[in-house]
Amino acid sequence: MSQECSIVEDLLPLYKKQALQKPTVAFIEQHLASCQKCQQQLTSSKQIPIEYLPMKRTLSFFHIVFIVLSFMFAINSSLLGNQKGFVISYAIFGCLSYLFYKNIWIIFIISSVPVFVWAIINNLNNELYITSYSLTEIGALIVGAGYIALLHTIFALLGAAFAILLRRIFK
User: Using CA atoms, how far apart are residues 67 and 114, in angstroms rounded to an integer?
Assistant: First the structure.
């Protein structure tokens, strides 16, 4: 395999997407005209959809910011009591998070896990919910925290759905 072949092989996914500049396209097409192996590579290579590329496993500053925001929304919505301000804040949070991450599973995780954890922490020492730390009371606490997390997540996912529509409209 020549060096030129390895360069063309690396560029083939971008060539298929038509995401290269004209001089690069001309270089690839000139090479493909004379190289049978690269022609086969072009026709036989299967492209991995972007949605299935593995995510980085490192936390960046922005990951931490979104996780902290999620915890702040969880705390804020529990302090609001019966007010419904969390509906709008979680929808906006879900919309912005999706526009940033472009991954619905991340929205699900950062909108549900912090709320679930906060609901457990907030009610664990509350005498109205836990009196004897029995299995029944702990189970009810976990189910209640799951319900609260699910409720918040639904609104974040609705915001993410709005972001998906925005992306498709303005593509």
Answer: 8
Say if CB 98 and CB 168 are below 8 A apart. no
Nearest in space to 159 (alpha carbons), one of 91, 106, 107 = 91
pTM: 0.54
Block residue for tokens 């799951």: 146
DSSP string, 104-165: HHHHHHHHHHHHHHHHHHHHHT-TTT-SS--HHHHHHHHHHHHHHHHHHHHHHHHHHHHHHH
Question: Tokens standing for 20?
Answer: 């290269």
Neighbour tally for 153: CB within 10 Å = 22
d(CA 102, CA 153): 16
Quickly count: other Cβ atoms within 10 Å of residue 89's Cβ.
20
> Hey, what amino acid is at 89?
S
Helix/strand/coil for 87? helix
pLDDT truncated to tens, each residue of the chain (171 aa)? 578 898 888 888 888 888 889 999 999 999 999 998 888 888 875 554 444 445 455 556 766 776 677 667 666 665 555 566 667 777 888 888 888 888 888 888 888 888 888 888 877 877 776 777 788 888 888 898 898 888 888 888 898 899 899 888 887
